[in-house]
Design brief:
InterPro entries: ABC_transp_permease (IPR001851), BCAA_transport_permease (IPR052157). Belongs to the binding-protein-dependent transport system permease family. LivHM subfamily. The chain has 288 residues and is an all-alpha fold. Helix content is 73%, strand content 3%. The radius of gyration is 18 Å and the shape is globular.
């Protein structure tokens, strides 16, 4: 039971990271390989607010997430929108966006290494035990999980119970048809890309409360986000959440019962199983 609870608590931040990439790829059609760097930058942002300004890291999400939203909006408008305009098909756009964001990954990583160096950072926030089913867990992990659930719930309400959320989902299904019913596809794509960056930054801020981080670890979380998105079904919010839960529990089980160094191997194993037996994802549908 302790392993399951630990995995569930971890899956909250995993889900937010994957939801951010789901919006960016499912709506804006951008496979963002720099998503992990957005997360790490948010970790440093929350760390700075807490250690320098003594602002609660949960409260600092009110600064970190909007900043990520604005930065990602400009990245899309200045760098990625021209790629969308010139792409003759979705395949070309995916290749171009992968190459462009691959370069951004190294740029952002280099800037963080310049600013913070290569050492590891952490800080003590709510580092006290909290009993669940008679076993102690870190209160910071519990708070981070609850915050992630609230943010994911707000995203669900926006996407499925607001007019603009419906427009964003329409663009994800078919951007051409969405344009025919007077939806501004370009603006909806930019908004989805920026919102995805904000969700990833929120996940980073929450992760920093219980995780040791450094400027070079973004690629690991990019890989995990990609695996969760593919496992859940590209563009499917429900699938991303369920896949994040599966991945969190699997990693915790392997780390606790076998060896912490094999958690990435377990992640890859789940990924390979998905490609072999359910390539369309948990809730995805087979192509006709």
């Amino acid at each position: 039971m302790e392993i399951v609870v630990t995995g569930v608590l971890l899956s909250g931040t995993y889900a937010l990271i994957a939801l951010g990439l789901t919006l960016q790829y499912g709506v804006a059609r951008i496979m963002n390989l720099a998503t992990g760097e957005t997360l790490v930058a948010a970790c440093f942002g929350a760390f700075w607010f807490f250690s320098v300004l003594h602002i609660n890291p949960i409260a600092s999400l009110g600064f970190v997430a909007p900043a990520a939203f604005v930065i990602n909006w400009f990245v899309y408008a200045l760098l990625l929108r021209p790629l969308v305009t010139r792409a003759s098909n979705r395949g070309q756009l995916e290749v171009d966006s992968i190459l462009a964001t691959f370069g951004l990954m190294f740029l952002f990583q280099g800037l963080m290494l310049l600013g913070f160096g290569g050492e590891y950072f952490s800080y003590a926030f709510l580092a006290e035990p909290f009993d669940i089913f008679g076993s102690p867990f870190g209160l910071n992990r519990v708070v981070a999980f609850l915050a992630a659930v609230i943010i994911a719930g707000a995203l669900y309400l926006f996407l499925y119970h607001t007019r603009y959320g419906t427009a964003v989902r329409a663009v994800a299904v078919d951007p051409v048809s969405a344009g025919l019913v007077a939806i501004d596809v370009a603006r909806a794509s930019a908004f989805a890309f920026a919102l995805g960056g904000a969700l990833t930054a929120a996940a980073g801020g929450l992760l920093s409360t219980f995780y040791t981080f450094n400027a070079s670890m973004g690629v690991v979380f990019t890989m995990k986000a990609l695996i969760i998105v593919i496992m859940g079904g590209v563009g499917d919010v429900r699938g991303a959440v369920l896949a994040a839960l599966i991945l969190g529990v699997a990693e915790t089980t392997v780390a606790s019962l076998i060896d912490p160094g094999l958690t990435l191997a377990a992640t890859y194993f789940l990924f390979v199983l998905t490609l072999l037996f359910r390539p369309q994802g948990i809730f995805g549908r087979k192509q006709a």
